Amino acid sequence: MMPLNEIDRLKRTVTDAWESPVADRIAAAWGYPAGTAKWWRSSASHVFVLPDPDGKRYLRFTPEAYRGAAAVDPVADLMARLWAGGSAVVRPVPTAAGTLTTAVRTDLGPMHAMVVEAAAGESIDADDLTEQRAAAWGRTLAEVHRAAAGAKGLPGPFGDLTAVPERFAADPALADAAARIGARLAELPRDEAVFGAVHGDFELDNLAWDGDRATAFDFDEAADSWYAADIAGALRDLTGPDGRADPGLRAQYDAFLAGYRTARPLTDAEVAALPLFAAAQAVGSLAVIDRALGVPGDDEAPWLVELRARLGDLAESQRALAIAAGR
Protein backbone atom coordinates (compact mmCIF):
# COMPACT_ATOMS: atom_id res chain seq x y z
CA MET A 1 0.00 0.00 0.00
CA MET A 2 1.18 3.52 -0.79
CA PRO A 3 1.61 5.99 2.06
CA LEU A 4 -1.68 7.65 2.97
CA ASN A 5 -0.28 11.10 2.28
CA GLU A 6 0.58 9.91 -1.25
CA ILE A 7 -2.96 8.67 -1.75
CA ASP A 8 -4.29 11.96 -0.42
CA ARG A 9 -2.11 13.98 -2.82
CA LEU A 10 -3.72 12.26 -5.78
CA LYS A 11 -7.21 12.27 -4.28
CA ARG A 12 -7.06 16.07 -3.92
CA THR A 13 -6.78 16.33 -7.72
CA VAL A 14 -9.93 14.24 -8.28
CA THR A 15 -12.99 16.30 -9.23
CA ASP A 16 -16.64 15.69 -8.37
CA ALA A 17 -16.85 13.91 -11.73
CA TRP A 18 -14.09 11.49 -10.56
CA GLU A 19 -11.63 12.91 -13.07
CA SER A 20 -8.04 14.00 -12.47
CA PRO A 21 -5.61 15.97 -14.63
CA VAL A 22 -2.90 13.59 -13.44
CA ALA A 23 -4.78 10.57 -14.78
CA ASP A 24 -5.65 12.47 -17.98
CA ARG A 25 -1.98 13.09 -18.70
CA ILE A 26 -1.11 9.43 -18.17
CA ALA A 27 -4.10 8.02 -20.08
CA ALA A 28 -3.06 10.08 -23.10
CA ALA A 29 -0.19 7.62 -23.60
CA TRP A 30 -2.86 5.09 -24.57
CA GLY A 31 -4.69 7.59 -26.77
CA TYR A 32 -7.50 8.43 -24.35
CA PRO A 33 -8.78 12.04 -24.36
CA ALA A 34 -9.00 14.14 -21.20
CA GLY A 35 -11.99 13.32 -19.02
CA THR A 36 -12.09 9.63 -19.98
CA ALA A 37 -10.37 8.16 -16.92
CA LYS A 38 -12.54 7.99 -13.78
CA TRP A 39 -11.00 7.44 -10.32
CA TRP A 40 -11.89 4.07 -8.77
CA ARG A 41 -9.53 3.46 -5.85
CA SER A 42 -5.98 3.93 -4.56
CA SER A 43 -4.01 1.38 -2.57
CA ALA A 44 -0.85 -0.25 -3.89
CA SER A 45 -1.55 1.71 -7.11
CA HIS A 46 -3.85 4.51 -8.17
CA VAL A 47 -6.55 2.89 -10.30
CA PHE A 48 -8.82 4.65 -12.80
CA VAL A 49 -11.53 3.11 -14.96
CA LEU A 50 -11.25 3.63 -18.72
CA PRO A 51 -14.53 3.12 -20.60
CA ASP A 52 -13.64 1.59 -23.95
CA PRO A 53 -15.59 0.34 -27.00
CA ASP A 54 -13.75 -2.98 -26.68
CA GLY A 55 -14.60 -3.35 -22.99
CA LYS A 56 -13.76 -1.63 -19.73
CA ARG A 57 -10.09 -1.18 -18.91
CA TYR A 58 -8.13 -0.05 -15.85
CA LEU A 59 -5.33 2.49 -15.75
CA ARG A 60 -2.93 1.71 -12.89
CA PHE A 61 -0.06 3.99 -11.89
CA THR A 62 2.28 4.63 -8.98
CA PRO A 63 4.76 7.39 -8.12
CA GLU A 64 8.31 6.66 -9.19
CA ALA A 65 9.52 7.27 -5.65
CA TYR A 66 7.36 4.42 -4.44
CA ARG A 67 7.36 1.97 -7.35
CA GLY A 68 9.55 2.59 -10.35
CA ALA A 69 10.19 0.88 -13.67
CA ALA A 70 12.25 -1.87 -12.05
CA ALA A 71 9.13 -2.98 -10.19
CA VAL A 72 6.44 -2.24 -12.78
CA ASP A 73 8.05 -3.61 -15.95
CA PRO A 74 8.61 -7.22 -14.78
CA VAL A 75 4.99 -7.41 -13.62
CA ALA A 76 3.71 -6.25 -17.00
CA ASP A 77 6.00 -8.71 -18.77
CA LEU A 78 4.80 -11.55 -16.56
CA MET A 79 1.13 -10.74 -17.13
CA ALA A 80 1.65 -10.51 -20.90
CA ARG A 81 3.47 -13.83 -20.93
CA LEU A 82 0.75 -15.54 -18.88
CA TRP A 83 -2.07 -14.11 -20.99
CA ALA A 84 -0.36 -15.06 -24.26
CA GLY A 85 0.09 -18.61 -22.94
CA GLY A 86 -3.61 -18.97 -22.18
CA SER A 87 -3.54 -18.45 -18.41
CA ALA A 88 -6.67 -17.02 -16.82
CA VAL A 89 -5.25 -13.52 -16.22
CA VAL A 90 -6.15 -10.11 -17.59
CA ARG A 91 -4.28 -8.75 -20.61
CA PRO A 92 -1.94 -5.75 -20.35
CA VAL A 93 -2.82 -3.22 -23.07
CA PRO A 94 0.12 -1.67 -24.97
CA THR A 95 0.50 2.09 -25.18
CA ALA A 96 0.13 3.93 -28.48
CA ALA A 97 3.91 3.53 -28.78
CA GLY A 98 3.64 -0.24 -28.32
CA THR A 99 5.14 -0.55 -24.83
CA LEU A 100 3.41 -2.35 -21.95
CA THR A 101 4.32 0.36 -19.43
CA THR A 102 5.28 4.00 -19.58
CA ALA A 103 6.73 6.71 -17.36
CA VAL A 104 4.90 10.04 -17.44
CA ARG A 105 5.85 13.31 -15.78
CA THR A 106 2.88 14.87 -13.98
CA ASP A 107 2.21 17.72 -11.58
CA LEU A 108 2.64 15.17 -8.78
CA GLY A 109 5.97 13.93 -10.12
CA PRO A 110 6.87 11.04 -12.43
CA MET A 111 4.44 8.13 -12.51
CA HIS A 112 4.89 4.60 -13.85
CA ALA A 113 1.77 3.22 -15.46
CA MET A 114 0.14 0.33 -17.26
CA VAL A 115 -3.37 -0.44 -18.53
CA VAL A 116 -5.09 -3.80 -18.20
CA GLU A 117 -8.34 -5.12 -19.55
CA ALA A 118 -11.16 -5.79 -17.12
CA ALA A 119 -11.76 -9.39 -16.07
CA ALA A 120 -15.06 -10.84 -17.17
CA GLY A 121 -17.40 -12.02 -14.42
CA GLU A 122 -18.33 -11.19 -10.87
CA SER A 123 -16.55 -11.05 -7.53
CA ILE A 124 -17.50 -13.34 -4.68
CA ASP A 125 -16.57 -13.57 -1.01
CA ALA A 126 -15.85 -16.51 1.25
CA ASP A 127 -19.50 -16.84 2.30
CA ASP A 128 -20.49 -17.52 -1.32
CA LEU A 129 -17.58 -19.83 -2.11
CA THR A 130 -18.70 -23.34 -3.05
CA GLU A 131 -16.37 -26.32 -2.81
CA GLN A 132 -16.46 -26.57 -6.61
CA ARG A 133 -15.32 -22.98 -7.01
CA ALA A 134 -12.73 -23.40 -4.26
CA ALA A 135 -11.24 -26.30 -6.20
CA ALA A 136 -11.23 -24.22 -9.40
CA TRP A 137 -9.54 -21.38 -7.49
CA GLY A 138 -6.77 -23.67 -6.30
CA ARG A 139 -6.31 -25.19 -9.74
CA THR A 140 -6.10 -21.71 -11.32
CA LEU A 141 -3.35 -20.67 -8.91
CA ALA A 142 -1.41 -23.85 -9.63
CA GLU A 143 -1.69 -23.19 -13.36
CA VAL A 144 -0.35 -19.66 -12.86
CA HIS A 145 2.59 -21.04 -10.86
CA ARG A 146 3.35 -23.57 -13.55
CA ALA A 147 3.11 -21.07 -16.41
CA ALA A 148 5.10 -18.33 -14.62
CA ALA A 149 8.17 -20.48 -14.00
CA GLY A 150 11.35 -18.72 -15.01
CA ALA A 151 9.98 -15.16 -14.91
CA LYS A 152 12.74 -12.59 -14.42
CA GLY A 153 13.15 -9.37 -12.47
CA LEU A 154 10.69 -9.99 -9.64
CA PRO A 155 11.59 -9.09 -6.04
CA GLY A 156 12.44 -11.77 -3.52
CA PRO A 157 10.20 -13.03 -0.73
CA PHE A 158 9.19 -11.13 2.40
CA GLY A 159 11.47 -8.17 1.83
CA ASP A 160 10.02 -6.30 4.81
CA LEU A 161 10.69 -9.07 7.31
CA THR A 162 14.31 -8.28 8.16
CA ALA A 163 13.52 -4.64 8.95
CA VAL A 164 10.71 -5.45 11.38
CA PRO A 165 12.77 -6.03 14.57
CA GLU A 166 14.28 -2.53 14.25
CA ARG A 167 11.07 -0.86 13.04
CA PHE A 168 9.09 -2.35 15.94
CA ALA A 169 11.82 -2.35 18.57
CA ALA A 170 9.33 -0.91 21.09
CA ASP A 171 7.20 -4.05 20.65
CA PRO A 172 9.50 -6.88 21.83
CA ALA A 173 6.85 -9.61 21.41
CA LEU A 174 6.44 -8.71 17.74
CA ALA A 175 10.16 -8.23 17.17
CA ASP A 176 10.87 -11.64 18.68
CA ALA A 177 8.16 -13.28 16.58
CA ALA A 178 9.56 -11.70 13.43
CA ALA A 179 13.05 -12.96 14.26
CA ARG A 180 11.76 -16.49 14.83
CA ILE A 181 9.76 -16.43 11.61
CA GLY A 182 12.76 -15.18 9.64
CA ALA A 183 14.98 -17.90 11.07
CA ARG A 184 12.46 -20.61 10.15
CA LEU A 185 12.07 -19.27 6.61
CA ALA A 186 15.86 -19.29 6.17
CA GLU A 187 15.84 -23.04 6.75
CA LEU A 188 13.31 -23.78 4.00
CA PRO A 189 14.42 -25.13 0.60
CA ARG A 190 14.32 -22.87 -2.44
CA ASP A 191 14.61 -25.37 -5.27
CA GLU A 192 12.41 -24.95 -8.33
CA ALA A 193 9.95 -27.57 -7.10
CA VAL A 194 8.79 -25.31 -4.26
CA PHE A 195 10.02 -21.81 -5.15
CA GLY A 196 9.42 -19.55 -8.16
CA ALA A 197 7.35 -16.70 -9.57
CA VAL A 198 4.10 -16.15 -7.66
CA HIS A 199 1.11 -13.81 -7.93
CA GLY A 200 1.52 -12.53 -4.37
CA ASP A 201 -2.11 -11.69 -3.61
CA PHE A 202 -4.36 -14.39 -5.09
CA GLU A 203 -7.26 -13.64 -2.73
CA LEU A 204 -10.90 -13.72 -3.79
CA ASP A 205 -10.80 -9.91 -3.99
CA ASN A 206 -8.43 -10.20 -6.95
CA LEU A 207 -10.48 -12.70 -8.96
CA ALA A 208 -13.48 -12.38 -11.23
CA TRP A 209 -15.75 -15.39 -11.71
CA ASP A 210 -17.53 -16.35 -14.93
CA GLY A 211 -19.38 -19.47 -13.84
CA ASP A 212 -16.70 -21.65 -12.25
CA ARG A 213 -13.84 -20.03 -14.17
CA ALA A 214 -11.74 -17.51 -12.25
CA THR A 215 -9.68 -14.77 -13.93
CA ALA A 216 -6.88 -13.13 -11.93
CA PHE A 217 -5.84 -9.49 -11.89
CA ASP A 218 -3.81 -7.13 -9.64
CA PHE A 219 -0.28 -8.55 -9.87
CA ASP A 220 1.22 -5.67 -7.85
CA GLU A 221 2.64 -8.10 -5.27
CA ALA A 222 4.18 -10.57 -7.74
CA ALA A 223 7.49 -11.93 -6.46
CA ASP A 224 9.90 -14.84 -6.40
CA SER A 225 8.77 -16.82 -3.38
CA TRP A 226 7.59 -20.16 -2.12
CA TYR A 227 4.53 -21.48 -3.90
CA ALA A 228 3.10 -22.43 -0.53
CA ALA A 229 3.45 -18.80 0.60
CA ASP A 230 1.24 -17.78 -2.32
CA ILE A 231 -1.27 -20.42 -1.26
CA ALA A 232 -1.24 -19.13 2.31
CA GLY A 233 -1.87 -15.59 1.07
CA ALA A 234 -4.71 -16.71 -1.16
CA LEU A 235 -6.38 -18.56 1.70
CA ARG A 236 -6.41 -15.65 4.16
CA ASP A 237 -10.21 -15.36 4.00
CA LEU A 238 -10.53 -19.06 4.88
CA THR A 239 -8.20 -19.06 7.89
CA GLY A 240 -8.59 -18.18 11.55
CA PRO A 241 -6.49 -15.96 13.82
CA ASP A 242 -3.79 -18.65 14.09
CA GLY A 243 -3.24 -18.92 10.33
CA ARG A 244 -4.93 -22.32 10.14
CA ALA A 245 -8.14 -23.30 8.40
CA ASP A 246 -11.29 -21.74 9.83
CA PRO A 247 -13.39 -24.71 11.04
CA GLY A 248 -16.48 -23.23 9.40
CA LEU A 249 -14.69 -23.01 6.03
CA ARG A 250 -12.64 -26.20 6.27
CA ALA A 251 -14.40 -27.89 3.35
CA GLN A 252 -13.58 -24.99 1.00
CA TYR A 253 -10.02 -24.80 2.34
CA ASP A 254 -9.47 -28.50 1.64
CA ALA A 255 -11.15 -28.21 -1.76
CA PHE A 256 -8.73 -25.41 -2.71
CA LEU A 257 -5.72 -27.60 -1.84
CA ALA A 258 -7.21 -30.56 -3.69
CA GLY A 259 -7.83 -28.36 -6.74
CA TYR A 260 -4.26 -27.08 -6.62
CA ARG A 261 -2.94 -30.64 -6.60
CA THR A 262 -4.76 -31.38 -9.87
CA ALA A 263 -2.37 -29.03 -11.68
CA ARG A 264 0.84 -28.98 -9.58
CA PRO A 265 2.38 -31.13 -6.86
CA LEU A 266 1.90 -29.93 -3.28
CA THR A 267 3.62 -31.88 -0.54
CA ASP A 268 2.43 -32.43 3.02
CA ALA A 269 5.49 -30.48 4.20
CA GLU A 270 4.38 -27.46 2.15
CA VAL A 271 0.88 -27.66 3.60
CA ALA A 272 2.34 -27.89 7.11
CA ALA A 273 4.26 -24.66 6.45
CA LEU A 274 1.14 -22.65 5.55
CA PRO A 275 0.71 -21.17 9.07
CA LEU A 276 4.36 -20.09 9.04
CA PHE A 277 3.83 -18.27 5.74
CA ALA A 278 0.62 -16.73 7.09
CA ALA A 279 2.65 -15.38 10.03
CA ALA A 280 5.36 -14.02 7.72
CA GLN A 281 2.73 -12.26 5.62
CA ALA A 282 1.17 -10.78 8.75
CA VAL A 283 4.54 -9.34 9.77
CA GLY A 284 5.03 -7.94 6.29
CA SER A 285 1.57 -6.40 6.39
CA LEU A 286 2.45 -4.64 9.65
CA ALA A 287 5.50 -3.05 8.02
CA VAL A 288 3.41 -1.93 5.04
CA ILE A 289 0.70 -0.49 7.29
CA ASP A 290 3.25 1.30 9.46
CA ARG A 291 4.80 2.98 6.40
CA ALA A 292 1.38 3.82 5.00
CA LEU A 293 0.14 5.43 8.20
CA GLY A 294 3.06 7.83 8.57
CA VAL A 295 2.34 10.96 10.59
CA PRO A 296 -1.26 12.26 10.53
CA GLY A 297 -1.74 15.70 9.02
CA ASP A 298 -3.56 18.60 10.65
CA ASP A 299 -6.29 18.87 8.00
CA GLU A 300 -7.01 15.29 6.99
CA ALA A 301 -10.27 14.65 5.17
CA PRO A 302 -12.88 12.47 6.94
CA TRP A 303 -12.30 9.58 4.51
CA LEU A 304 -8.60 9.63 5.37
CA VAL A 305 -9.27 9.66 9.12
CA GLU A 306 -11.59 6.68 8.66
CA LEU A 307 -9.04 4.80 6.54
CA ARG A 308 -6.35 5.46 9.11
CA ALA A 309 -8.58 3.96 11.83
CA ARG A 310 -9.36 0.87 9.72
CA LEU A 311 -5.67 0.30 9.05
CA GLY A 312 -5.00 0.58 12.77
CA ASP A 313 -7.57 -2.14 13.45
CA LEU A 314 -6.05 -4.31 10.72
CA ALA A 315 -2.59 -3.84 12.25
CA GLU A 316 -3.85 -5.15 15.59
CA SER A 317 -5.25 -8.32 14.00
CA GLN A 318 -2.07 -8.87 11.97
CA ARG A 319 0.09 -8.45 15.06
CA ALA A 320 -1.97 -11.08 16.90
CA LEU A 321 -1.65 -13.47 13.96
CA ALA A 322 2.10 -12.92 13.67
CA ILE A 323 2.67 -13.66 17.33
CA ALA A 324 0.26 -16.63 17.52
CA ALA A 325 1.32 -18.34 14.30
CA GLY A 326 4.99 -17.42 14.66
CA ARG A 327 5.53 -19.36 17.88
Instruction: Estimate the helix proportion, in percent.
Output: 40-55%
| Low-confidence segments | none
N-to-C SSE series? Answer: HHEEEHEEEHHHEEEEHHHHH
| Mean of all residue-level pLDDT scores | 92
Mass-distribution shape: globular
Number of domains: 2
The count of β-strands is: 10
Structural class determined from secondary elements: alpha+beta
CATH topology category name of the largest domain: Aminoglycoside 3'-phosphotransferase, Chain: A, domain 2
Q: What distance lies between the first and last C-alpha atoms, to the nearest angstrom?
A: 27 Å
Quick synopsis:
With 327 residues, this protein is an alpha+beta fold. It has helices at residues 4-11, 21-27, 69-84, 131-148, 164-167, 172-186, 227-234, 250-261, 268-272, 274-293, 302-325; strands at 38-42, 46-50, 57-63, 92-93, 102-106, 109-117, 195-198, 207-210, 213-216, 223-226. The protein has two domains: 4-117, Phosphorylase Kinase, domain 1 (2-Layer Sandwich), CATH 3.30.200; 126-325, Aminoglycoside phosphotransferase (APH), C-terminal lobe (Aminoglycoside 3'-phosphotransferase, Chain: A, domain 2), CATH 3.90.1200.10.
